[in-house]
Amino acid sequence: MTELGAADETEKVEPGTTLLLVDDDGPFLRRLARAMETRGFSVEIAESVAEGLAKVRAKPPQYAVVDMRLGDGNGLDVIEAIQEKGDNTRMIVLTGYGNIATAVTAVKLGAIDYLAKPADADEVFAALTRKPGERAEVPENPMSADRVRWEHIQRVYEMCERNVSETARRLNMHRRTLQRILAKRAPR
């Protein structure tokens, strides 16, 4: 992972622009918060879905970066709560368990981008401040065969509404094998 360091003078938002960061990785969360503060954001942090929802209810942010898997639930619940507030919050999902199905779900709920961990502050800032219609850069390396398999499993898992037994049945796979696959991070 690259350093989550200070920004150039050209990489800043208007002072007072609010940003909510929701991630259960405390050290990463605090480093990212410091890096975003140097870029002009007024940062609020939350380390759980419950804490994120409370902050959204108190005052919806202008920008949000939400981790997908949190200790007490799914970060998409925070994305959905922000969207229900009706504000024009620019949201991105940040996760170490990235897959196409959850990316599509996140975008349908109102997220503007989906970044896989490890992501540095520059990538997060670029995703948050990208102008509408501006495209993200195409990745240099295509997905590996292991990654494609993992993506397919994740897509079926999401189609089955995260029901492990039903997903295993549809994939003709033993339930425990599927649970082990789901517990691991995505292959590169």
State the secondary-structure class: alpha/beta
Radius of gyration over all CA atoms, rounded: 17 Å
Question: What's the number of domains?
Answer: 2
The CATH architecture category of the largest domain equals 3-Layer(aba) Sandwich
Number of strands: 7
CATH class of the largest domain: Alpha Beta
- Low-pLDDT runs: 1-9
The oligomeric state is single chain
Would you give the CATH topology of the largest domain?
Rossmann fold
Amino- and carboxy-terminal Cα gap: 15 Å
| Biggest sheet strand line-up | 2-1-3-6-7
Average pLDDT over all residues: 83
Helix segment tally: 8
Strand content: 15-25%
Helix content: 40-55%
Biggest sheet statistics: 5 strands, parallel
Order of helices and strands: EHEHEEEHEHEHHHH
Report the CATH superfamily of the largest domain. Response regulator
Q: Based on CA inertia axes, which overall geometry fits?
A: globular
Structure description:
- This protein has helices spanning 26-38, 49-58, 76-84, 100-108, 121-129, 145-159, 164-171, 175-183, and strands at 17-22, 41-46, 63-67, 69-70, 73-74, 90-95, 111-116.
- The chain has 188 residues and is of the alpha/beta class.
- It folds into 2 domains: 17-129, Rossmann fold; 145-183, Orthogonal Bundle (Arc Repressor Mutant, subunit A).
- The strands form 2 sheets. Strands 2-1-3-6-7 form a 5-stranded parallel β-sheet, with helices on both faces.
- Helix 4 (100-108) links the parallel strand 6 and strand 7.
- It is globular and about 55 Å long.
